[in-house]
Design a protein that fits this description.
Strand content: over 45%
Largest sheet: 5 strands, antiparallel
Strand order of the largest sheet: 1-17-16-13-12
Distance between the termini: 40 Å
Structural class: mainly beta
Number of helices: 1
Amino acid sequence: MKKSCILLTIALTLLTGCGQKGKTESQAEEMYTLKKGKIVVNEKYRAHNQLYDTNIDTIARKLVDTFAFTVGEESYEVKYYKLTGNGWDGEAGDFYFINLFHNGKQILEHIDLDGFCELGSDADWTFELKPLSSIPNKYAIVCPLRQGVTALIFDGYVYASQPPKMPIVVVKGDQAAVVQNLNIDIEKFSLKDGLLDATFVDSYPEHYGYDENGNELINSSARRYRITSTPKGTLMFEEVEDRS
């Protein structure tokens, strides 16, 4: 009887392992916490501003657009800049600088010389991005979360078949931080009553020919990540499916 129980346990373990093959065991993790009015970022999901050989402070900046919004009694303005002169005119991307102001005081600058794009102007391969924003504008998906927190999602410039950097800036009061800056793109998106639930992928499907019946062959080996918000105003990150 004891031997039978041991064999049954081994069999169940093997079956469970087979059923989980190809899946990633991932636990949702906070991308940041809110402590005493501060946004404390989990650096795991944030790539720092790039370092460049060019001293960009010596190159003129051109204001591309501004966008103002309010959260309760808090007033914010986003200013978008690009570089002009010194060979930068005509380079890829609509802007390179995201400057965020709270009540007239700058609280964040995020730079990416690979460029950012107007929502819908590049490779939005699944659906239009502009309608996702709770506040109509050209460059940011505005997501009001719980506890007075707002997330701004920006769309980077796409090179080849790699998704762009898609930074998420979180704002609360006079605090702001980039909490995510990975090369991913939105596949699914839901925002209701301050709760965000979105799925992102790290690569696009690639066409590589046809089979003997003329059916298109597509390589879709993307990792999928889920970003969700919580009632306490934080964002959670987890890998939900590994490469096939």
